[in-house]
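Q: Protein A?
A:
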Amino acid sequence: MARLAAFDMDGTLLMPDHRLGDRTLATLRRLHEREVTLTFATGRHALEMRRILSAIAMDAFLITGNGTRIHSREGEVLYRQDLNPEVADLVLHSRWETDASVHVFNDSGWLTDKALPETLQAHLSSGFTYQLTDLKRLSAHDVTKICFVGDHDDLCRLRIQLNEALGARTHLCFSAMDCLEILPVGCNKGSALAVLSTTLGYSLQDCMAFGDAMNDREMLESVGKGMIMGNAMPQLRAALPHLPVIGHCRDQAVSHFLTHWLDTPNLPYSPE
């Protein structure tokens, strides 16, 4: 019996319209009643996730910013890690050959330098939004992460540039096909989940986790039971071919799997 369950949000718990389905919410409450500790492990900001938890009236630990922050159920910061200021300064003040937009995250929120209404579609239900600012004048201290959003092929070329400039001073990952993230060294959902599980007195073998993108890789491969979504990035499925694939987020597949796990744990699971 798993004691801790970790859930990615976009492409996993959330349906394509970025809402939590009723069946998903009901199943999460069943897990809570069975004394399984819940944590949402997401690239989203802690400020937004607290709004979401308040709206659904659910207690859970938060791993946000792709592992840069861990918050207790009461909102206490249990762990934090920021980008090296030299790295943040280099990224913000260098000229990169890309058409991607730049997004900076710190404890105050989400910062960008151009109005991009399309990027708000994923945040309509929470009302979370960016703050327009001159990124060149932004302090390089206390930057949690920096994201580039754009065409996937363009981002792949940008990743080569960033690797050449930053080397081992940062961790690069795709949180979606159109989003390349620059994170602190050693910072990912898996390392954050290891910190949280130790804090709670669990081992990673006591954990189950669900995800769909490359920023979920370390988390999924480190837990006792890792599940990949049917709508996952092909790169994730190729990287973790031994892990089971469940259904699509549009069908609330996490709820489908967990209902089977709770009610008929001794029978083989099929996503059909």
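Q: Protein B?
A:
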Amino acid sequence: MTLDSVLSDPAAAPRRPTRGVAVRWGGHVVRVGGDAPVVVQSMTNTDTADPQATALQVRELWQAGSELVRVTVNTPEAAAQVAALRDALDRMNVPVPLVGDFHYNGHKLLTQFPDCAQALSKYRINPGNMGGGKRRDDNFAQMIEVACRHDKPIRIGVNWGSLDHELLARMMDENAARSAPWSANAVMREALVVSAVTNAERAQALGLRGDAIVLSCKVSHVQDLIAVYRELSRRCDYPLHLGLTEAGMGSKGIVASTAALAVLLQQGIGDTIRISLTPEPGGDRSREVVVAQEILQTMGLRAFTPMVVACPGCGRTSSTVFQELAASIQAFLRAQMPVWKTRYPGVENMHVAVMGCVVNGPGESRHADIGISLPGTGEIPSAPVYVDGERTVTLKGDAIAEEFQAIVENYVARRYGQQQGAEPARRPGVVARDIH
């Protein structure tokens, strides 16, 4: 390691050059690939045949920050309600484009329900479950014809749980004839890439524009996902959708998704992401949107909401005051963002520190845009507040949380209310870490 490498600013590799794909609904356009930022998307788990329940969940996901929302279209009953779903969203002023998720019978549903085909902004096609032989080719061609007729982009989503059996069998046979055969897993990864690229090329041969195609090759294991997408990015310039096909539940799903996507994003691979978390029973579906945003923001690739740096706690901080304040401030900031993002441009870049004792509290608070250093066990019961690196006030008493929140609100209005749409100057950012 050289001195220059130590002193240089860390950054992800430049984004891999791709075609830009526009996903539209009315005048609202979400751009995937090209020079657009990495797009966050999610998927509903309601029955699409119930348009009202689905519309409410789509709105919830959109309010959390999902820029594209995918819905299941698996039955005639579901397809018949997609237009009503779109109408309900339009009445609620929710412009988020809808992506239709099709398996097995998409060619029939898109043809039989033209209102569904028109109301969707994009189609997800899985070439591995469209039949075999000529039937598969005809079904695929029928879906592409509908996409061309309605001027809709598609995602060709290959999945190792439903890979084209004929393609895989042929490639396994070819591998067996090699003098040094690959592992079965390596053949599987190669088949995923081949399926995605060849089907994209076939879609173009059938008349679909090259800038209307997004690709994905989803698997469930981190190392396989990294290997597949590295190879896929080497062989094509279509935008790529990243995500484990089933990340899992709770911390396991979050860790697995972060481990896989962070490696690829750091290498400039990936144009849109979805975190496929299994919700806890009765859990919040929008959790996957928050995790996707936090991956992108902690990597410095996008900014969605002010970041809160909080002390992890130790034997010096037996009180839970700093934990409660950090949680309340973080929830408050996220709740304000639907209004703040239009009223206060640049506020999403703000850093807030909520620290638990005198060891590193004042220093970390100075590094943040606004920070508070709460007293640790046995320390003087006072909490200095730092704004833009300067100590401005010391809070005491039982109303510290309310007073600090008011200080944050005033700071946001004063600093970002004057920006007139300009990006504010950034102070050095800090990330959460064990500070003791």
